[in-house]
Amino acid sequence: MSLFPNLLLSLFLLIGVCNGRTKKIEEGHVQMQTQTLNTNPTHFNPQVPPLRTLSSSKRFEGSSEFVKLKYHMGPVLSSPINIYLIWYGKWPQSQKLLIKDFLLSISASDRRVSPSPSVSDWWQTVSLYTDQTGANISRSVSIAGEYADLHYSHGTHLTRLSVQDVIATAVHAKPFPVDHRNGIYLILTAEDVTMEDFCRAVCGFHYFTFPSKVGYTLPYAWVGNSGKQCPELCAYPFAVPGYMGGGGPGQLTPPNGDVGVDGMISIIGHELAELSSNPLVNAWYAGEDPTAPTEIGDLCEGLYGTGGGGGYIGSVMKDGEGRTFNLNGRNGRKFLVQWIWSPILKACAGPNALD
């Protein structure tokens, strides 16, 4: 459920190399909006040094009978999905535009807008998951509203409970409707905001609000900008830990020139995929403990292309300026987003697969 990069020791590499069949850690510098054009991109499979963390890896890098992903009869987000964005803290407009371009690319199926492999193609794997009626997760995703909490109404340090107060403030201020059927609430904290367990155990997480806190049960996700706090953990592989300094391959160049926000993009995708397939923590997950489920993003954490595993992130693309990506988005954007577990292939899947 919560995302912490586990690109680690080979002890935890449970399956080996991906077969590549289609395949949870926060105001930043102002920069111009960048459009990274796909000019003669080249494919490469960079070997990036693994992270040393204390948590064990949940990754299963290829098709595996050991992954017991089960449906627990709960709902998935099968109706058109309305995202309500909460910008907590001071966010430069350029960073907002980058994140919104990613979100709006999910439903941008027009090849002239987002050529393949696209963010929309990537969401196809998420949309394969169904509820007990056979209804698939919706492929329609839109930004239905935004709220900017510029004055840090609940302080610059949040907890898993107080983040629900942030949602309550937004809802009670009435910029948002209470959207029980279609709504999800995405809280994005600026890089000067700390969060309980951020940079130690999580890069992002999702859950649902408690009526005692917000007045309603609403699915939500939180992701923080790690740019000044722990980019080597939550914007990896665009930054690498200091203990790796000098030896072996270095960090990759982010596709939009912003280590913190480019790192957030994959985490946002991870959490949205899991929130859509397990919004009330009673739908799609592996394991028997719903308080610590292994979900469809966890299973493919750190994998971005064909041939991933053993320190390799998989085959991705690099443009003429050396910027690394695997998906195309609207407005000429490029993104590097992890793959998702496919219920059909029973393997990690993404639209940039080479076979």
Describe the 3D structure.
It is a single chain. The protein has 355 residues and is α/β, with parallel strands linked by helices. It has one domain. Helix content is 17%, strand content 18%. Strands 4-3-6-9-8 form a five-stranded mixed beta sheet, with helices on both faces. A three-stranded antiparallel beta sheet has the order 1-11-12, with no helix packed on it. β13 (327-328) and β14 (334-335) form a beta hairpin. α1 (93-105) packs parallel to α6.
Question: How many DSSP helices?
Answer: 6
The average pLDDT score comes to: 84
Number of strands: 16
Strand proportion:
15-25%
Low-confidence stretches: 5-39, 52-63
Rg over alpha carbons? 19 Å
Distance between the termini: 29 Å
| Overall number of domains | 1
In helices, the fraction of residues equals 10-25%
**Spatial shape:** globular
* Run of helices and strands: EEEHHEEHEEEHEHHEEEEEEE
Strand order of the largest sheet: 4-3-6-9-8
Largest sheet properties: 5 strands, mixed
Class from secondary-structure proportions = alpha/beta
InterPro entries: EXORDIUM-like
Pfam families: Phi_1
Main location: secreted
Family: Belongs to the EXORDIUM family.
